[in-house]
Design goal:
single chain; about 210 residues; Glutaredoxin; 2 domains; 7-stranded mixed sheet; 9 strands
Length: about 210
């Protein structure tokens, strides 16, 4: 039989269900709005000035307009990650020989990566690779433009004489950036991206 107690219970359940419905509706609307507002390319890139290690002269982002560029940030004293990534970058280039693309290695360790050091280092990698260094401020500007994180692995490293230890490592972002001939950011590829997938994306974006 229907009693006042059962009717009250049904009303409470109905009110709870209605409240849950409105809560879920608001959550889904917020979630959808978040998805919509996050669509689009990140604001990466901008003007920069560095030193081309091959010529020893200053170059800017505009120096590479007219062709696609593939940027990688690293340092020559990196024991494993940077060499591995540069080998992968070379594998990508070998698979797209018909794409006019300039690979640029930009140091995040200008204190040690001199012009001579960079030029000696590149001999182990793809012949198209161009090496760029600069002053600490110039490197800071270009890394900021591409939101590249980097820092000494241990700022407190000193040798027995109390001098800075030159064998320090540098923690940094592990990303390749594809830039259009007009200097516009097109895409980025992380360490986990497969070479074949990078090749497919670059091929599609450069046609």
């Amino acid at each position: 039989p229907i009693t006042w107690a059962s009717m009250a219970l049904a009303g409470a359940i109905g009110a709870g269900a209605l409240a849950y419905y409105h809560t879920e509706k608001e959550r889904l609307q917020t979630q959808t709005t978040g998805k919509v507002t996050s669509v689009g390319k990140p604001l990466l890139g901008g003007p920069w000035t560095l030193v081309d290690c091959e010529s020893g002269s200053c170059v800017t982002d505009a120096s590479f307009h007219g062709k696609h560029t593939l940027l990688y940030f690293g340092f020559t004293h990196c024991p494993d990650i940077c060499p591995n990534e540069l080998v992968r970058l070379g594998d990508v280039l070998d698979k797209i020989p018909n794409v006019d693309i300039e690979p640029l290695f930009i140091t995040v360790d200008p204190a040690r990566d001199t012009v001579q050091q960079m030029e000696a280092y590149k001999k182990d990698f793809h012949p198209k690779l161009r090496m760029l260094t600069g002053t600490p401020d110039q490197v800071k500007d270009v890394t900021k433009a591409y939101r590249v994180y980097f820092t000494k692995a241990d700022e407190s490293d000193v040798d027995d004489d109390g001098e800075d230890d030159e064998e320090y490592l540098v923690d940094h972002s592990i990303v390749m950036y594809l830039i259009s001939p007009s200097g516009e950011f097109l895409d980025f590829f992380t360490q986990s991206a497969r070479v074949d997938d990078i090749v497919k994306k670059i091929t599609a974006l450069t046609q």
